[in-house]
Amino acid sequence: MRLMTKASGTATIKEEEAAHFGGLAADWWDPAGSSAMLHKLNPVRLGFVRAQINQHFGCAEEALRPLAGKTALDVGCGAGLLCEPLARLGANVTGVDAAQENIEAASTHAARSGLAIDYRAGELSRQKLGKFDLVTAMEVIEHVADPAEFVAQLAAHLKPDGLLILSTPNRTAASKLLLVEAAERFGQIPRGTHDWNQFITPGEMEQLLYDAGLQIMALEGIAFTPLKGLHIGSNKALNYILAARFLD
User: Fold this and answer.
1) Residue range of the domain that includes 129
2) Contact 18, 78 (CB under 8 A)
3) pTM of structure
4) 95: exposed, middle or buried (C-beta count within 10 Å: 0-12, 13-18, 19+)?
5) Which residue among 25, 39, 136, 147 is least enclosed by CB atoms within 10 Å?
6) What is the mean pLDDT for each group of 10 consecutive residues in the chain (248 residues)?
């Protein structure tokens, strides 16, 4: 029998990363601010998320609240850009982030939007949250201290029949040129956001998930072209998004 990686409770937060993103909290919800790229990326990710929800849970495409009666956990939630759509899809949502400033901004925005979302600051392993039908972690794993422990923590919070959705930049020459050097140099992404050496390739990610007892069910690239803008497709050179579940 294969021994899968178990969550150990080891810290995954890098304090310098928490400070960096906490410093962006004030204008996280400004589509023209420092998180402008996330505002452009979020609808693209949501299209993939909704498609995987429909497939995994057997929901109709026209259903307005496909997550009604289900629980969702967004890890590295920032100020709630994904938590709020998940709540509108019917889920009972919990968001966890390393930066207290982000949690405060998220809580304020959710209250103004009339959404009841449970936000927590700090290490995921210390929140005592239980297990969820849906676990998401968007553009987070490249910022953690221990990717294997982080994936193990995600798995530890997933129900046996649950769905995990994760996105992250790929470690390629293209991502180094466009996501790190060009995007940060020309102000599309705040300076110091990315360390290219911490990017994880799809093959490496597949192994991390397998070690945690998970298997990939869908894997798509998030690409950019002048004609289409950001979109889901087969090109994984910059970024990719995946859906996973526990091994059969």
Assistant:
1) 15-58+67-246
2) no
3) 0.93
4) buried
5) 39
6) 66 87 86 83 96 97 96 97 98 97 96 97 96 97 96 98 97 88 63 84 98 98 91 96 96
